[in-house]
Design a protein that fits this description.
Radius of gyration: 35 Å
Helix content: 25-40%
Strand content: 35-45%
Number of strands: 28
CATH superfamily of one domain: Biosynthetic peptidoglycan transglycosylase-like
Distance between the termini: 134 Å
CATH architecture of one domain: Orthogonal Bundle
CATH topology of one domain: Penicillin binding protein transpeptidase fold
Number of helices: 13
Structural class: alpha+beta
Shape: elongated
Length: 643
């Protein structure tokens, strides 16, 4: 064969072979794709300690554009360490975009499913659950910045969110700590960017309800919105959050909830997004929030967020709304090279309408504030700056005051001023009335302010609230110190309460340790202190006459007689100091003395420490310190017998 013919043959055969190989490869693509998907499923199962079984899987309609159709039947998902299956699906069909040009992708275009059964089981008593495999700690999230993470999440969501979707039925069953719920999501679909579905609570759920779900999806603009509202016979009421927390411990109910999410700017070094949320007829209960459900007619907010590599910023253009009240918070969370957080939170509101603020507070959870009507404007300033790399540097500031002296009280002032007159104090023990004490001259043990021993006043100030006669109800440095101590210990241990706060708690409020009580306490302290509704002298007088100094021993008059068989005016400096240190733990006074009534060595050291601190703060002089002897001997008597 001539050289020319060989060249012609090669020129003809080589392209033909290439075309043939490409054709064979294309015909084998479904086989390769099926093998690849099976390996991925097996790898995913090993990584998450679960097993995924598929009765039959088919790959079809492979096109040169990179699209193919996946059809799977009889799908079962089960954690390897669980007894119950987590999910079962009879039929799943998906159209997947495998590549664009020469770039591999994993975009989901069309999803259809028949009936899906999802069963979640957990028990907090032994830590068991059948869905733990769903949680995964991404190692990359520990090495990438906030912006990179949010971009990855957005792009992954866009890939997995189908352009078209049709799911006949999803049956959701939960058995969480023996609390069962059953819901059915039917007719879930996405068509031309619009989402729809109906969620129904089935028999066996805590409460019957039906929710209409509507939404819009624009993947190109990264914009997603949705609304969930009650329909049918319960459309005018509220219902529990589907698959929510244990209703016996805490719950969340609402009538309608909506959200709107949009990425407004996506750059390599930052991403901006806008999020709006709204809830109508919200009802929530948590044992730390209030002792009864909190009901709010309307609440929501608008959040302007910006993600950078090392920080997340909530801009002050954001707003949070509670009924008619609106505030504009600022928040910045950043981290250093060691992943230690630095949090800055602030609110700076000027000329807030006081009437709207007071009237917007939830009904039923406050005792006094609902009966107080106000007018005028208020300025609010809050700052919390905490660098977890240097917790001791924490800064806290709080200020609430009248704008241009326009604030005033229209109604309810008498609820506070009544304590300027003689009154009967009711002392409670474990929530029940223990006894009553007359705060007036009719009580032989009552001690007026001008008869309170000077050293007792100084001792109480040193032990409880050194700046009581000069502050406006709060000591910002004490609150900051309490926050530092709580953050360092990881527990709520210190309160930083002033005498004003203790007095308001004892006179006006219950003793329950809930946030609503603390919030009302702060408002009442602000009203009393800023507008001098009760003078400092009267407040201190009430304080020493209602304080518990021993079991069933109320007031300094009873205490001085109980411990020393003296009148308050006859107490020595050491005796005054001893009594002042008992206020925080009056029921444990026995541990401070020996069998002969002499104070223990530990108590003696404590008194010496407090008296030195009094000198450092300028409460007493060096000369008074030199003459101080911590010699205290009490009369051992039965509680409740001052005479």
């Amino acid at each position: 064969m001539s050289r020319k013919k060989k060249r012609i043959l090669l020129a003809t055969c080589i392209p033909g072979c290439i075309v043939m190989l490409l054709l064979i490869a294309f015909l084998l693509l479904p086989v390769f794709a099926k093998s690849y998907i099976n390996r991925k499923i097996e790898s995913w199962g090993k990584e998450r300690n679960c097993t995924i079984t598929i009765g039959q899987m088919e790959i079809s309609h492979f096109s040169l554009s990179g699209k193919f159709t996946l059809k799977a039947t009889d799908i079962h998902v089960k954690a390897n360490d669980a007894t119950e299956e987590f999910a079962v699906t009879d039929l799943l069909t998906a159209e997947i975009q495998a590549w664009h040009g020469f770039h591999l992708t994993k975009e989901l275009h069309d999803l259809e499913a028949g009936t899906m059964d999802i069963h979640a089981v957990s028990s907090s008593s032994n830590g068991y659950n059948n869905y733990g495999f769903l949680h995964k700690n991404h190692k990359s999230s520990q090495t990438t910045g906030y912006n990179e993470r949010v971009i990855r999440i957005l792009e992954t969501f866009n890939q997995l969110c189908p352009d078209k979707m049709s799911i006949q039925t999803i049956n959701l069953t939960t058995d969480l700590d023996s609390i069962s719920s059953r819901y059915q999501l039917s007719g879930m679909s996405i068509r031309e960017g619009r989402m729809a579905g109906v969620l129904t609570a089935l028999p066996g759920s805590p409460e019957a309800s039906q929710w209409d779900i509507r939404g819009c999806i624009d993947k190109k603009k990264f914009r997603y919105s949705g609304e969930m509202s009650l329909t049918g016979s319960c459309s005018d009421s509220t219902a529990p959050l589907p698959l929510g927390p244990n209703p016996e411990e805490n719950h969340l109910r609402f009538q309608r909830a909506s959200f709107d999410f949009q990425v407004t700017e996506k750059q390599k070094d930052h991403t901006r997004m806008s999020i709006s949320v709204g809830v109508r007829k919200l009802e929530c209960f948590h044992r730390y929030l209030a002792d009864i459900p909190v009901r709010i007619d309307s609440t929501g907010g608008h959040l302007d967020l910006c993600f950078h590599h090392e920080s997340i910023v909530l801009d002050s253009t954001s707003s949070l709304q509670l009924n008619q009240a609106v505030i504009h918070p600022y928040l910045k969370i950043s981290q250093n090279e060691k992943k230690q957080k630095h949090i800055v939170f602030s609110v700076n509101e000027r000329k807030c309408d006081a009437r709207s603020l007071f009237s917007s507070l939830p009904e039923g959870i406050f005792e006094v504030i609902p009966h107080i009507k106000v007018h005028g404007n208020m300025d609010l300033r809050v700052l919390l700056d905490c660098d977890f790399a240097q917790i001791d540097s924490l800064r806290f500031d709080f200020d609430l005051r009248s704008s241009d002296h326009t604030f005033g009280i229209d109604e309810g002032r008498e609820l506070i001023t009544r304590f300027n007159e003689p009154f009967t104090y009711v002392f409670y023990e474990n929530g029940d009335t223990s006894r009553t004490v007359e705060i007036s001259e009719v009580n032989p043990y009552f001690c007026p302010f001008d008869q309170i021993p000077e050293y007792l006043t100084k001792s109480i100030l040193a032990s409880e609230d050194a700046s009581f006669f000069s502050h406006r109800g709060f000591i910002k440095s004490a609150i900051a110190s309490a926050l530092i101590a709580d953050l360092q210990s990881g527990k709520l241990r210190r309160g930083g309460s002033t005498i004003s706060q203790q007095l308001v708690k004892n006179l006006f409020l219950n003793r329950k340790k809930v946030f609503s009580r603390k919030f009302e306490e702060m408002l009442l302290v602000w009203l009393i202190e800023d507008y001098r509704i009760i003078s400092k002298e009267r407040m201190f007088e009430i304080y020493v006459n209602i304080a518990e100094w021993a079991p069933e021993t109320i007031g300094i008059g009873e205490a001085s007689q109980f411990y020393f068989e003296k009148k308050p005016q006859e107490l020595t400096f050491a005796e005054c100091l001893y009594l002042a240190t008992l206020i925080r733990a009056p029921k444990h006074y026995r541990s401070t003395v020996d069998s002969d009534g002499n104070i223990t060595e530990n108590k003696r050291v404590e008194l010496e420490f407090v008296v030195k601190r009094m000198v450092e703060r300028g409460i007493i002089t060096e000369e008074e310190l030199q003459g101080f002897l911590p010699d205290v001997k009490i009369k051992l008597r039965q509680p409740g017998t001052p005479d």
